[in-house]
C-alpha cells in the first residue's frame, strides 16, 4: 500500500533528529565551512533564505565574524566577502545558480544541497551534499533544518546554545508530544523570534501558508508591540521561539490571545512542532500538504 502524500510529509518530519545527528558528524569533517574571522554572506530562496538568516545571526552571536544573509535575487553585487554560502535543496534554483555564476572567480563559495546530480555541483568551490536529508515533498522540512544543523554544528560550542545532539533529543520529544489544542483550533497564528530564532519564526509562518493555506505572520519578537499585536485576540495564537521577552505574556493575555512558548526547548526542535501543526491543519482542511497549491519543488525560470 503506497503512502498518501500527507503520510510521506509526516514521515520526513519524523526523521529530523537522526538527520541532525548525521549533519553534526558530517560538519566535523567538512573543510568548506566559514572560518572564524571571515566576512561571510549566506544566501538562498524561500525556506533556504530563512535558514540563511538564522545561521547568519547565530554566527555573529558566536563572535565568529560579520555575517549577512540575503535572498539570492537581492544579493548586493558590489559588496565584498571572504566567503559566500548558498543553501539550495534542489541544486537547480535559477536565482542561486545565477548568483554563483556571478561570483565565480571573485569570492570562494560553499553550497549545501541535497542532490549531487544537479548543476550546482559545478557552480561552487566547495559542496556539502546532504543527500540523506533530501525530500519527496514540495514543502521543505527535513532538508532545511538539517542544513541549519550542519552549519550550526560547524560553529562549535556556542554559549547559551545547546549542541546539535541535544537539540535532536528535544526534537524527538517535539515529535511525540500532543500539539497545543488552542493552536489546532485557532483561526490565525503569529510567530515571533529574536536573533537567530527570527528566521525560524519566518519559516514556521511559511510552512503554515504553504501546507495549510493559513493566515500566518512572523515578526521579530520585540516588534510585536509595534503594530502586529493589533490582530491578536480570542481564537488567535502568538507562538514564540526561544526565550520569552519580558512582559510579552501579559500583553498577549490582555488582548485575549493565546500564547504558545517553550523556552526550555531548543528553538530548532520547536520548529518541528510548527511543521507538525502545518500538516495537521492541512489534513483537517482537506488539503494535500505534500503538493501545495501553486508551488513546485524548485523554481526554474525560463530565459
Question: What would your notes on this structure say?
Answer:
With 303 residues, the chain is α/β, with parallel strands linked by helices. Helices cover 40% and strands 15% of the residues. Strands 2-1-3-4-5 form a five-stranded parallel beta sheet, with helices on both faces. The chain has a four-stranded parallel beta sheet with strand order 7-6-8-9, sandwiched between helices. Helix 1 runs antiparallel to helix 10 (267-284), helix 3 (47-61) packs parallel to helix 5 (142-154) and helix 8 packs parallel to helix 10 (267-284). The chain is globular, with a radius of gyration of 19 Å. The model is unreliable at 1-5 (pLDDT under 50).
Topology record:
Elements lengths: L4 H10 L1 H13 L11 E5 L2 H15 L5 E5 L11 E6 L5 H10 L5 E5 L12 E4 L12 H13 L9 H13 L4 H5 L2 E6 L3 H16 L3 E5 L15 E5 L7 H7 L3 E4 L5 H18 L19
Parallel strand pairs: 1-2, 1-3, 3-4, 4-5, 6-7, 6-8, 8-9
Defining traits:
303 residues, alpha/beta, disordered N terminus
The helicity comes to: 25-40%
State the secondary-structure class: alpha/beta
Shape: globular
Order of helices and strands: HHEHEEHEEHHHEHEEHEH
Distance between the termini: 41 Å
In spatial order, strands of the major sheet run: 2-1-3-4-5
Number of helices: 10
What amount of the residues lies in strands?
5-15%
Q: Largest beta sheet, briefly?
A: 5 strands, parallel
* Strand count: 9
Q: Average pLDDT value?
A: 93
Low-confidence stretches: 1-5
Our Rg estimate from Cα atoms comes to 19 Å
